[in-house]
Design a protein that fits this description.
mainly alpha; globular; 2 domains
Length: 172
């Protein structure tokens, strides 16, 4: 993958296989050409099947679990106002009430204060209103980028459920 936008596009395609480039672009707040380029890159690396633009869910989940934080690391910055993400996001916040250990996507209109991390897509801060389900999934992905072992495990479990991928044992 060349761009963090590729990850967000793959998430959209998990939830909406075959979605048109224009719709992907509108949903994520990116250009149509960026949506097209992202899909082409995902096809090139084998995470999306070209026919029907369907995500190889198991391979994508393996990338998220083992590679994401190395390829697109999140570098927490100063405390700012923003949109809660990672374990402070909507799906993990009740499980991990860490008070001061909050991560946010910077936004003057955000509902929380926490350490700022750059989202995978530039206009992610608008997703809670525009595409709540994509927001939830991207916040789980951020938990894989910045979370500790417990937070990563909880996020991975939720992502497996969302993607319809069962835990598999790998024979060595």
């Amino acid at each position: 993958m060349r761009s963090p936008i590729d990850v967000a596009v793959a998430i959209v395609l998990v939830e909406h296989p075959g979605m048109k480039f224009e719709s992907i672009a509108q949903l994520l707040g990116i250009s149509v050409s960026k949506a097209y380029d992202a899909v082409q890159q995902l096809v090139a690396v084998g995470l999306v099947l070209p026919e029907g633009r369907r995500v190889n869910r198991l391979a994508f989940l393996e990338f998220l679990e083992h590679g994401l934080r190395y390829v697109f690391p999140a570098k927490p910055g100063n405390v700012r106002r923003g949109v809660p993400t990672a374990h402070a996001g909507p799906l993990l916040a009740k499980e991990f009430d860490d008070g001061d250990d909050v991560y946010v996507w910077p936004s003057p209109d955000g509902s929380a204060r926490g350490r700022a991390i750059e989202p995978l897509v530039p206009k992610a801060r608008d997703l809670p209103e525009r595409a709540p389900h994509i927001y939830e999934t991207l916040s789980l992905v951020d938990a894989l980028r910045v979370g500790r072992a417990r937070e990563r495990a909880a996020a991975l479990s939720e992502l497996r459920q969302r993607f319809g991928v069962q835990q598999t044992a790998i024979a060595l």
